[in-house]
Amino acid sequence: MEELLDRIAEGIYSQSYVVIDNFVDEIFRKALFDEQTDLLEKGKFRKAAIGIGEQKQIRPEIRSDEVLWMDADNLSLLQSEYWNRVEQIKQMLNRRCYLGLKSYEGHFARYPIGSFYKRHLDQFHQVPYREVTVILYVNDTWSEEDEGALRMYIHQEDGTERIEDYLPLPGRLVVFLSGEIPHEVLPTKKERNSITGWLKTID
Ligand SMILES: O=C(O)CCC(=O)C(=O)O
Ligand SMILES: [Fe+2]
């Protein structure tokens, strides 16, 4: 784990994003996937919105996933184990990158077949406190033909953008600075399951 945490800090420090394969082992990933599937079957997921508060809107032409927010006061055993790991990432980023991260919020996300999330930034005027995005993919399998990649737009020194596509491979973790990396989820051909969250500079 220490070695993985070092790689996360190094990636964030040097290029504002990092992709870590096998961040969780198969047993843990599978347990998260099963829990997510169970919550889905119980009808607990809701269509994801964009914006917050008064500005909150369901805009299926922008994003068409469904989410279930985790409740910090009511975490399952498994969820709190995942939170612990995110807590370790937080501490490492504070120690090595001085980001002043204080808390975490996160949700399970499910992208039904054909769904997507158009290009956006996770940090914007309504949520300036979202500093670091942390995504874990929990599907059992994923292949090229399933599509549904996370596309990140990386700003280059010459003013252009470089595209980086990452498939939601089982156990893969993606971490990036929420205010620096525009990104999108390309349309998926298979149901796509993940846990997405944000490390915040407020409590
Ligand atoms: O699932 C992903 O790869 C990205 C999700 C995302 O961009 C978001 O929920 O803000
Ligand atoms: Fe996002």
Automatic annotation (TrEMBL):
InterPro entries per record: HIF_prolyl_hydroxylases (IPR051559), Oxoglu/Fe-dep_dioxygenase_dom (IPR005123), Pro_4_hyd_alph (IPR006620), Pro_4_hyd_alph_FE2OG_OXY (IPR044862)
Cofactors named for this entry: L-ascorbate
Domain Fe2OG dioxygenase: 102-201
A single GO BP: cellular response to hypoxia
Keywords: Dioxygenase, Iron, Metal-binding, Oxidoreductase, Vitamin C
Organism of origin: Algoriphagus zhangzhouensis
Any Pfam family hit: 2OG-FeII_Oxy_3
GO molecular function: ferrous iron binding; L-ascorbic acid binding; peptidyl-proline dioxygenase activity
Protein name: SM-20-related protein
